Amino acid sequence: MIDMKKSLVFLHGYTLCLVSLYQVTAQQVYQSRCNDINKQYLDDELIKLKRVILQEIATMRATTTALSQSSSFVCAPPWVSFKTSCYFFSNDYGTWLYGKAQCEQKRGSSKYLRINDREEDAFIRNFVRSRGISAYERRDYWIGGTDAGQDGVFKWEGYSQNFSFSNWGPNNPDRLNSADCVILYQPSDYKWHDTSCTNDNSYICEIEF
After folding, report:
1. Beta carbons of 76 and 186 less than 8 angstroms apart
2. Which residues cross the membrane (predicted)?
């Protein structure tokens, strides 16, 4: 004869097992679906973020291009602007090393002037001509060129870069009398001359942006 009490106990236990198994399975399915949903959500958000970043990069590039093509870059006086650089023209005099130290103390990334092309050279020469120096006053300007590292190989101070452009005056560089530093030479309409670094001249500093 079947023991009904034992059968009911067995069925009850079996039912509890099935319910528990169902709950565990349902939780696993739910978690799996949540993971899938979260992954899809994160993927969508990453795609959106990537689009935003690419748009910002494009905007920054456009702004940089516009600045590089603009001649109205603003510099605080007494600095003078041209394209994306600021220039300082000194009134005092000193050796080449004195001018270097003064430039490096002026502002942030200020260094000796580096002239990159004919357009920049023309701007610098026109500006120093316009400073109203008396016909009886001599004023030459140190710039950042020097061949102190290797005789005859002129580089820009602070950049370790050979000249990609130059505008030497007649018979220059002559490399006479330890002429290791470059000036804008007034008697030759501010063309470049090499001279002794211990002479006293004014100097020109530049901040490149």
Report:
1. no
2. none
